[in-house]
Design a protein that fits this description.
Layout: E1 5-13, E2 22-27, H1 30-41, E3 46-53, E4 62-63, E5 66-77, E6 83-99, E7 105-111, H2 120-144, H3 157-167, H4 172-179, H5 184-217
Parallel strand pairs: 1-3
Antiparallel strand pairs: 1-7, 2-6, 3-4, 3-5, 5-6, 6-7
């Protein structure tokens, strides 16, 4: 067995966690309160996998095969026995096998790093994706009537690619597809396709908003009572 293969407690969630992403959680089910307590006691991480079906019971729960380990950075114990925790995504992993050795799921996993960050094509892809992402944020802000900004941009290409992936407002299955990208160029190419599509949609939404504003400016309503 490879040294990279390990057993990891698994939390199936209706979310896709990326490395570097903050994920606050409220823990209330007994099995997950046990899991988190054991992780805290052993200073261990747990794995987050997107649940795909059968979310109600551990024996029937189906999960995606690529996820991200989570490190607990903050915990607050509530009076009712529940816990509020804050976690941050650590390493991407691939699920090899589900083990039913605990009341919660345990996965036999291997670390699955995103490779080829230094390949020759990445620099050009990063430039294109970054420019497209800036346009996406600007358009989203205009449509929402607010300012959407990223406080600081990571310098390494892998973190930048993950930042764009976690910031995109897209369906979960597309987020999972981004997480499963085989390498950095593949992830950036997927993001470029999504950003191109979203830019078209946001432009259409902005156009509709402007047309509606123009319509209502030209309409006068007589609300006087006769």
């Amino acid at each position: 067995m490879s040294e990279e293969v390990q057993a990891l407690p698994i939390f199936p969630l209706d979310v896709v966690l990326f490395p570097g992403m903050l994920l606050p959680l409220r823990i209330f089910e007994d099995r997950y309160r046990l899991m988190i307590s054991e992780c805290l006691a052993g200073q261990r991480q747990f794995g987050v996998l997107m649940a795909t079906s059968g979310y109600g019971g551990e024996r029937t729960t189906q999960v995606s095969t690529v996820g991200t380990s989570a490190r607990i950075t903050h915990v607050q114990h509530l009076e009712n026995g529940h816990m509020d925790i804050v976690t941050v995504g650590q390493e991407r992993f691939r699920l090899l096998q589900i083990l039913h050795t605990e009341p919660y799921l345990v996965g036999r996993i291997e670390i699955y790093p995103l490779e080829d960050a230094d390949s020759p094509q990445v620099r050009n892809l990063v430039t294109k994706a970054t420019a497209s992402f800036v346009r996406y944020l600007r358009l989203a802000g205009e449509v929402l009537g607010t300012s959407v900004e990223i406080a600081s941009s990571p310098h390494d290409r892998t973190s930048l690619a993950y930042l764009m992936a976690m910031s995109l407002q897209i369906p979960l299955h597309e987020k999972q597809s981004l997480l499963e990208a085989s390498n950095v160029p593949a992830l950036l190419n997927k993001e470029l396709l999504i950003l191109s599509r979203e830019e078209i949609l946001l432009n259409l939404m902005r156009q509709v908003q402007e047309e509606n504003r123009g319509y209502f400016r030209g309409v006068s309503l007589d609300l006087s009572l006769s």
